[in-house]
Specification:
This protein has helices at residues 24-33, 39-47, 53-66, 73-78, 85-99, 105-121, and strands spanning 8-13, 16-21. The chain has 172 residues and is mainly α. Strand 1 and strand 2 (16-21) form a beta hairpin.
Length: 172
Amino acid sequence: MPNPHRGEIEACLDGTSFRLCLTLSALAELESAFNNDDMLALAERFQSGRLSARDAQRIIGAGLRGAGNDILDDAVGRMQAEGGAAGFVDIVARLLSATFAGPAAPIVGAIAGEIAAGLAGTGGVRPSGPDTMAPPGSPSPLRGGVRGGGPSKPAVSGITAEERPRPFPGTT
């Protein structure tokens, strides 16, 4: 059973339940894979609201290895998740949320909301679970409007309390 206080989640891949955790080593692995100098640059990459299949593969692979599973990224790419591509996005959103549940939780929540909004716009399935996405129809804290419309807002440190992204339920 995963320990949420350690940032662990459980995910079903290829019909098998796995524990995932982005440990410090797993985060360092992602910094290297994404050519980022530090965790802030890594968080900014995730904050963009865009997620490639390769990004999901690397994040899930690092989470699996961080939890002690000996599974390479290429093997993750051949696995199946319930819900298809949206299932992988759900795993990534839950893993990032569990990892950054402290002060970064509002940012991670905004990222998951952006991903969910993008999937909804394409007819995809949204990430599931009460703590993996912003409420449907909520304004996008990353782009300044509902579901991505409007001008960009300033960085989180330069916005007012009213403009800050709301954290997921249960993370504050």
